[in-house]
Design brief:
This protein is α+β, with helices and mostly antiparallel strands. The protein has a four-stranded antiparallel β-sheet with strand order 3-4-5-6, with helices on both faces. A two-stranded antiparallel sheet has the order 1-2.
Length: 128
């Protein structure tokens, strides 16, 4: 009789918990990657990226910039004549509230031959 009462109780308990989700560390970030749209989190990332951009210097290597800035939102690489140009885009300002990062919300960091030659829209425009 006791076992007959436990089975329905177990079924009810299982069904009542089946829709539950537990979020641990739920700020939307897993390391340096974004998986949500928390207002304060994207503002913090943009502020952090702007602060770190101020620490850039011409001649820094790609590895040095990635160590300082983290993974870029976008990464372009092309060859023009004899030079290799790479551009890393870091999110620094929000223009649309659509939850997606676009290049117009980023600051480009331009490298030639693996070394920083400039950052910002003018540096990017001059590189293409």
């Amino acid at each position: 009789m006791k076992n007959q009462l436990m089975l329905p109780a177990a079924i009810v308990l299982t069904l009542s918990l089946s829709g539950c989700v537990v979020a641990v560390g739920g700020d939307g970030w897993e390391g340096d990657s974004w998986d949500g749209d928390s207002h304060s989190s994207w503002e913090e990332v943009e502020k952090r990226n702007r602060e770190r951009l101020s620490q850039l210097s011409p001649g820094m290597s790609v590895d040095q910039v990635v160590a300082l800035m983290g993974t870029a939102e976008f990464n372009e690489l092309y060859r023009e004549e004899s030079k290799e140009v790479q551009v890393l885009f870091y999110r620094t300002h929000r223009t649309k509230g659509d939850g997606k990062t676009s290049k117009d919300e980023c600051t480009p960091v331009v490298f030639e031959g693996g070394k920083v030659v400039g950052w910002g829209n003018k540096a990017y425009s001059n590189s293409i």
